[in-house]
Design a protein that fits this description.
The protein is an alpha/beta fold. β11 (315-318) and β12 form a beta hairpin.
């Protein structure tokens, strides 16, 4: 019986490693082990199979021979594929794409051909660091230079025996990924070797240079984000296919033991991060949940393999090749895929994700919108199944088990609020959230000859500031021809399809700068008679917090319904307004200059860039991320004002919940933009189109 599985390495010279490549440890989170990046020369190359296979009796317990088979499978090339040593990185592509190619050619036999000389595996000509590696893994090894080391010490948060259980899970799951077409686009870091001494266990594994989930949320399009959460759901589905049903009553004693250990550990934190009142409340909630489910022992739960800690922090994504890598497996006190569903809900329903990553105020609306969308998709995947009735038990204990380990006020508020929310939901037979967007009424994308209401929101602290270039109040700054910029903002609009143009301003600013509202309105006298006749003025007694609050205030005051076009007050462009769901865009590479010889864009960094698919349908809208050369220039069409109001209300509600659960690290509130509302609608499935404009001039940037 083999006792170990070693691997042969061809070690590159340290001089050949590019100093420009600095690996980063993404998604490390708060590991119970010491985690660091090491050079692959320092890796352990020996896996003591008896040590890893040994453990408590459980469904995943393997003999050394079985574990050796799993380890070999985990290191094997893609299923149904023979090694192709001459395949270049570009030809190899992702493992999932190679599997799909093989499945399209089931009857084609390989011919006997002489062995071809392999191409160099790196730009520097180095050979691969491991003899059995395939081309799709080469792509992920960043020149075969780095590895990740996890080390569990005696007296640390996690002892070596738990780390060994987790590594056993990782090896088994990696083998499943290699052998199952259902997991062809899922992977996990490969185990290189491990070492045990008297005081610690060291495990070395593959370094994965993919992007974290936050990056995907902020920069990638709707389709990529949908693929991400659907792939996470597919992992759970695969786990469910390996399960056997048991009654909940068979594991309630295990939950009771876990509840008692949480109560005991929580008592030791009283007087520090946890008050006596908070401890009493948490203990009462634990008792309530246990009492509720002790009366429901007849419920069935799927018992079988699970990741154990399937959070977004434990995922890395190659969005180009559509590969999802999961890591940091966890041994669970009850092994069931319900643990993984609960972990996903912990991130996107209870917003634990926001406690573990740094999200700026400008990023917060988009991240919260994506977490809402992920929650919708997870709920829609499992809500119609009986497991949804027992899921709150696992969801509650996923949060409660963190109580003894939490380290910040943010984490405490998130956990305690989530536990309260779950307790309040017990016995509620209806959905625990707003109606799913999949069942919302769909508005048409364009609305024929319907007249459009134009709203120009010119309120808020920004519009009352002094313009850096002119020394004048930004709202009333003059251009080179002494025309106020607020007048110029509507001068280039063709209004054949417009019923009214509402200018929303703060009354105190107008009285201070112009003396009277009448004097302000006379500034628009030089507009053509038709456009001048469409003007309406909304004077607010109070300053609004952001443009969304301004638009909602105008809508409520004037009872605006139907098609609307929202136009920024600090730029101008030429455009013919029509009813529909769309955004006005400017292309950075168009070379178009405005008629007044000003640059068409003064600051390219503070823009929302737009990606589109077929027929100019907008698929991505990312602030400050250059997803394309086209950016939103401040014109936003909505076929129905009701869509805008509902989406804005939903986003504001989600942000309010996020603030109560996880206060932002920086002071102040999120300043919502119209782009945030459009992204919410796009994620829900509403089609928006991009329309390029001409003669664009940006008056709002300091460089202008």
């Amino acid at each position: 019986m083999p006792s170990a599985l070693a691997q042969t390495k061809t070690r590159p010279s340290s001089k050949s490693i590019s100093k420009a490549h600095i690996p980063t440890l993404k998604g490390a989170g708060k590991s119970d082990c010491e985690v660091k990046i090491i050079h692959i020369d320092k890796c352990e190359a020996f896996v003591p199979l008896e040590l890893v296979a040994a453990g408590d009796n459980g469904s995943d317990l393997l003999s050394p021979c079985e574990l050796e088979s799993a380890l070999l499978a985990a290191r094997a090339p893609s299923p149904c594929l023979l090694p192709e040593p001459s395949m270049s990185l570009a030809m190899g592509g992702s493992r999932s794409s190679r599997v799909q190619k093989a499945s399209r050619r089931p009857q084609l036999a390989r011919r006997d051909t002489p062995q071809r000389s392999p191409r160099p595996s790196t730009p520097s000509g180095l050979v691969n660091t491991r003899s059995y590696i395939d081309s799709s893994t080469i792509r992920r090894l960043t020149s075969g230079s780095w590895a990740v080391r996890k080390e569990a010490h005696d007296g640390g948060k996690q002892d070596g025996s738990r780390l060994l259980k987790q590594i056993r899970k990782q090896i088994i799951f990696s083998a499943e990924c290699r052998n199952s077409r259902n997991l062809s686009n899922v992977s996990t870091p490969e185990i290189y070797g491990l070492r045990q001494d008297n005081h610690s266990i060291v495990v070395d594994m593959e370094y994965i240079p993919f992007q974290d989930v936050k990056h995907i949320m902020l920069t990638q399009d709707k389709a990529t984000n949908e693929w991400l959460v659907e792939t996470a759901v597919s992992i759970v589905d695969y786990e469910l296919s390996k399960c056997t049903p048991q009654r909940l009553s068979s594991v309630l004693s295990t939950f009771t033991s876990k509840a008692n250990s949480i109560k005991s550990a929580l008592g030791q934190k009283v007087g520090g991060l946890v008050s006596f009142t908070e401890m009493d409340t948490a203990v009462a909630q634990i008792d309530k949940v246990m009492g509720y489910f002790s009366q429901r022992g007849h419920l069935s739960i799927p018992m079988g393999p699970c990741h154990g800690d399937l959070t977004f922090q434990n995922m890395l994504v190659d969005f180009t090749a559509r590969e999802l890598c999961v890591f940091d497996f966890l041994d669970s006190f009850v092994e069931t895929p319900l643990q993984d569903i609960a972990k996903l809900l912990q991130d996107c329903r209870h917003l634990w994700f926001l406690t573990q990553v740094s999200v700026t105020l400008k990023e917060r609306a988009r991240v919260v919108t994506m977490l809402d969308s992920f929650h919708d998709k997870i709920m829609n995947a499992y809500y119609d199944y009986e497991i949804w009735e027992v899921l709150p038990l696992f969801e509650f204990f996923c949060l409660a088990r963190i109580l003894p380990y939490m380290t910040t006020e943010q984490e405490k508020v998130c956990i305690l609020t989530g536990m309260t929310r779950i307790c309040n939901d017990l016995g509620n037979t209806g959905p625990d959230m707003c109606d799913s967007p999949y069942f919302l009424p769909v508005s048409p994308t364009f609305s024929g000859d319907e007249k459009v209401t134009v709203i120009v929101p010119a309120m808020g602290a920004e519009m009352a500031q002094t313009h850096p270039a002119t020394g004048q109040t930004k709202l009333l700054s003059l251009d080179q021809t002494n025309v106020p910029l607020v007048v110029r903002s509507v001068a280039g609009l063709a209004t054949e399809n417009v019923s009214s143009i509402v200018l929303a301003v703060e009354k105190q600013v107008i009285l201070r700068e112009c003396g009277s509202t009448e004097a302000f309105e006379r500034l628009f006298d030089d507009l053509d008679s038709r456009k001048h006749g469409l003007l309406e003025f909304y004077y607010s007694e109070d300053q609004t917090s952001d443009v969304i609050e301004t638009v909602l205030a105008v809508q409520a005051a004037l009872d605006i319904a139907g098609a609307v076009f929202i136009k920024d007050a600090d730029n101008d462009f030429t455009f013919s307004i029509e009813a529909g769901n769309y955004m006005t865009l400017v292309n950075l590479v168009s070379g178009n200059q405005s008629n007044n010889n000003r640059s068409s864009i003064a600051d390219a960094t503070h823009k929302s860039y737009v990606g589109s698919t077929y027929d100019n349908v907008i698929s991505n809208l990312a602030y400050g991320s250059f997803v394309s050369s086209r950016f939103a220039c401040g014109g936003w069409g909505f076929v129905d004002m009701a869509d805008f109001v509902r989406a804005a209300t939903d986003v504001r509600r989600s942000l309010s919940l996020a603030k109560s659960l996880v206060p932002a690290s920086s002071p102040g509130d999120v300043k919502l933009q119209v782009a945030d509302i459009i992204w919410k609608l796009i994620v829900e499935g509403t089609l928006f189109f991009g329309i390029e404009v001409s003669d664009y001039a940006d008056w709002g940037c300091p460089q202008a």
